[in-house]
Amino acid sequence: MAASEPTPPSTVAAIFAGFFSVGIIGFGGVLPITRRMIVEQRQWMSGKEFTDILGLCQFLPGGNVINLAAAVGHRFRGIPGALAGLAGLMCAPMAIVIALGLFYGHFQDEPLVRHAFAGLAAAASGLIVAMALKIAAPLRTDLLGGLVALVTFAAIVWLRLPLLATMAVMAPLGIALAWKRAR
Amino acid sequence: MNDLIDLAVLYGHLSLLAFGGGPTVLPEMQRQIVEHGWMTAAEFAALFALAQAAPGPNMLVSTLVGLRVAGLPGAIIATLGMITPSSVLTVICLSAWDRFRDAPWRKIVQAGIVPVTAGLFLAAALLIAQAADRSIPLALLTVAVAGISFATKIHPLWLLAAGAVLGVIGAV
């Protein structure tokens, strides 16, 4: 597979179709599925190119896969490509979640629905706890990095400081720490 | 109309603050939505859970908040607010990014932001769990799901389904 040359999507519709396939099957982590679609199934770009664009999307604010749909679409077909990537990625999940939301709004006072959603909410929060632990795990052996994470956590949870103010202090601090280490 | 403008402003600025991915802005989203009087923290947690049960990117909670606050137009405005600013920024930076591919500062900034992102994710997890877990059995369910999801590669949809079933049969 590595031998064959990547073949960029030839139309805006192909970009829409590719990201549509990701949006409709991606539960939980959409990123691995996006990589498989772009690099392995449709072979739009090499694994190295993908990793490079992903680096930008993770570096900038916003949902990683959302940024990726815009970036990949734009690389191949300009602004229409970016719009096609975003629309393809978002349209099916949005329709499904709106249907779920209308259903929930209509039946949320039914005891059965209420109990089901209480269990669902507790399980969903468990998933994000696990995600947070996976991201924080490498800091176990990094005292100063762990301290930066702890202060950020305390500022948001206990002090209830606004995110913008917290980021304005903690991000430069984290970067200064990484800079000092790199020297 | 005012709600639509407020939704656009809220999600437009959260989009540009979401360093490290969407979930890092969940605590701020919850705080501002509750302060605005749109819903309680527990209602927000329920909408977050609903968004997790749908396929696609995990920022669909913005769609549901918009839907609750201002119907279908609200859902569309909130979603566009969440994806547009960061997407525009990404497209603008795309060509410059290639030029800085091997610049040392790129690696330093990327490494420096990691602990901040970790702290924000942990804060998001705690606040969402606090809002969702209104009883001891619910809290135990959260801990169990977190442990299983952390230690295994089980598909998250199974764990969500298990949570809903446990809720229906009255176990939690």
What would your notes on this structure say?
The complex is a heterodimer of chains A (183) and B (172). With 183 residues, chain A is mainly alpha-helical. Chain A has seven helices and no strands. The longest helix of chain A has 44 residues, at 64-107. Chain A is flat and about 50 Å long. Chain B is mainly α and 172 residues long. Chain B has helices spanning 2-17, 26-36, 41-52, 61-99, 104-132, 136-151, 156-168. In chain B, helix 1 (2-17) packs across helix 4 and helix 3 packs across helix 5 (104-132).
Low-confidence regions of chain A? none
> Most extensive interface, residues per chain?
A-B, 96 and 106 residues
The beta-strand count of chain A equals 0
Overall number of domains of chain B: 1
Identify the overall geometry of chain A.
Answer: flat
Oligomer: heterodimer
Number of helices, counting only DSSP H or I runs of 4 residues or more of chain B: 7
What's the helical proportion of residues of chain A?
over 70%
Strand content of chain A: under 5%
| Separation, N- and C-terminal Cα atoms of chain B | 40 Å
Give the number of DSSP strands of chain B. 0
